[in-house]
Amino acid sequence: MRKILLVLLFPALSGFWLMGCNSSTPADSSDSFDNGVHTVELTDSGWKFFVNDQPLMINGVNWDYFPIGTNYEYVIWEESDDLIKRALDHEMTLLQEIGVNAIRVYTGITPRWIEYIYDNYGIYTMLNHSFGRYGLTIDGEWVGNTEYSKPAVRDILISEVRDLASEFRNTRGLLLYLLGNENNYGLFWGGAETEDIPVRDDESARRAKYMYRLFNEAALVMKEEDPTRPVALCNGDVLFMDLVVQEAPDVDIFGVNVYRGESFTDMFDTIRDSYNKPVLLTEFGADAFNMIRMEEDQECQARINKWNWYEIYANAAGFGKAENSIGGFTFQFSDGWWKSGQTTDLDVHNTTASWSNGGYDCDYVTGENNMNEEWFGIAAKGPTGDDGVYELYPRAAYFIQKEVHKVDVYRDGLTLGELRAFFEKISIEDALQKASEIERRFAGEQVP
User: Fold this and answer.
1) Which of 317, 246, 258, 234 is nearest to 40 (CA)?
2) What b/e string do you get for 32-56 counting C-beta neighbours within 10 Å, with b at 16 or more?
3) Which of 28, 204, 205, 342 has the most CB atoms in a 10 Å sphere around its CB?
4) Per residue in 137-153, pLDDT tens?
5) For residues 345 and 195, what is the distance between their CA atoms, to the nearest angstrom?
6) How far apart are CA 219 and CA 244, in angstroms?
């Protein structure tokens, strides 16, 4: 179909050089299971994630499906099978093309569709239970901010995750379970919109202690139900790291949403020195809107994403740095037009920045917000067609990610110097040109 072929026309930006493809290949659909157990192990060279006894560097993206004009109330999995297949075929083809081997998806997806994605595109799914991040219904009443010390909360969440693990065990293509989404920030924020990073105080620490204790109990329950898949928690940066260490010793993987700009600075070392668990970046990236120029800024997004991926790889096993990185999930595949306001202006691509971050030097001004929640896609989102599937316009960051994922991180003999040299050769200018050519083709221009 036209939307796919426009992307596949373009060759690689800088070739395979010293690498080889690090993405998964489609599984044999005759398998009743994807051949066994997924584990995380501390090897002689550092932490690795294993699938069927083979190390896998997780090259992921945060994926969802929200047509323009919809918000979090829209559920793609409630649509017809025909529409779901069209949407998945379009988007998974684009992801497969750039070497993505895993997507992060919230509960609502069924085992059938996880297997469909894996069998047809070789892409795994990290299944994410929000674990009360956005509230719970308790005794028939909605409670927007979860208090993890309450017995009723414990009963609801433990029951939900036990049922989840029981339902999804033996699902082909299930990579691992993820609990929460920066729930430590949810101890401060009243809703789902992102705000400035909170500051710890005594009350939040008290509540956090109960929360991490419940995370640990949930991990144990899930592993009892499904011993074939690891369980990760999703933290907001390293806030409350001491309580994570103290209260959640049985969680397999430290998942972290982190937005620090071009570099994660000392994050990998901090986690290694305190928790000594494998690190999975469950969210990271950059928005594609410049608040100073008030226009799209694909160059800045591409640059930040590029060097974020370098640090994810450089801190993997075997390079002599933190050696605890097992991969990451870029935030995100396509823009979320509903993120600003959540329920208003759903058909408007808002340019209102909701929080401030000095690590993003392209448009940071002291005292002003510069992070645009509706512009984080490595693909821009277009209108929905008559077939129910919306257009996607890959940005420069999409093409950067294609180059990045050619790295075989675990290739014997690969050095940190060679890794750095490969990233230096990835051309942002070429990526910008490819994105521009695709945009012009969609506009109906003749492009050589």
Assistant:
1) 317
2) eebeeebbbeeeeebbbbbbeeebb
3) 204
4) 999 999 989 999 999 99
5) 19
6) 13
Burial of 424 (0-12, 13-18, 19+ CB in 10 A): exposed
Hey, what's the torsion of the CAs at 173, 338, 335, 368, to 10 degrees? -130
Q: Are 287 and 350 in contact (CB under 8 A)?
A: no
Looking at the chain, the number of H-run helices and the number of E-run strands are 12, 17
Structure tokens at 415: 């050095």
- Please tell me the distance from the alpha carbon of residue 37 to that of residue 288, in angstroms, as a whole number: 38
**Dihedral angle over CA of 41, 45, 49, 51, nearest 10:** -90
Q: Alpha carbon 304 to chain centroid distance?
A: 15
Report in angstroms the alpha-carbon separations of 401 from 291, 304, 316: 24, 11, 18
Q: Output the six-digit token pair for 250.
A: 């049985």
Query: Would you tell me how many other CB atoms lie within 10 Å of the CB of residue 310?
Result: 20
Domain-wise residue ranges, the chain: 2-442
**Of residues 391, 270, 396, 268, the one with CA closest to residue 320:** 268
What integer is the mean pLDDT of 289-298? Answer: 98
What is the rounded CA–CA span in Å between residue 328 and residue 372?
Answer: 21
Q: Which two tokens stand for residue 112?
A: 């059938």
Q: Kindly provide the b/e burial profile for residues 334-354, where b requires at least 16 CB atoms within 10 angstroms of the residue's own CB.
A: bbbbbbbbeeeebeebbeebb
The Cα 275–Cα 232 span in angstroms is 13
What Å distances lie between residue 346 and 63, 138, 334, 350, CA to CA? Answer: 19, 30, 15, 9
Phi-psi region of 304 (alpha: psi -120 to 50; beta: other; left: phi over 0): alpha
pTM (2 d.p.):
0.92
Q: Is 329 helix (H, G, I), strand (E, B) or coil?
A: strand
Q: How many CB atoms lie within 10 A of CB 15?
A: 11
Q: Give me 47's structure tokens.
A: 């932490």
* Whole-number CA gyration radius for the chain: 21
Tens digits of per-residue pLDDT, 152-191?
A: 999 999 999 999 999 999 999 999 999 999 999 999 865 5
The reported pLDDT for the residue numbered 445 is 77
Query: Is the bond leading into 332 cis (omega within 30 degrees of zero)?
Result: yes
Q: How far apart are CA 220 and CA 231, in angstroms?
A: 9
- pLDDT recorded at residue 35: 61
**pLDDT classification of 19: cutoffs 50, 70, 90:** very low
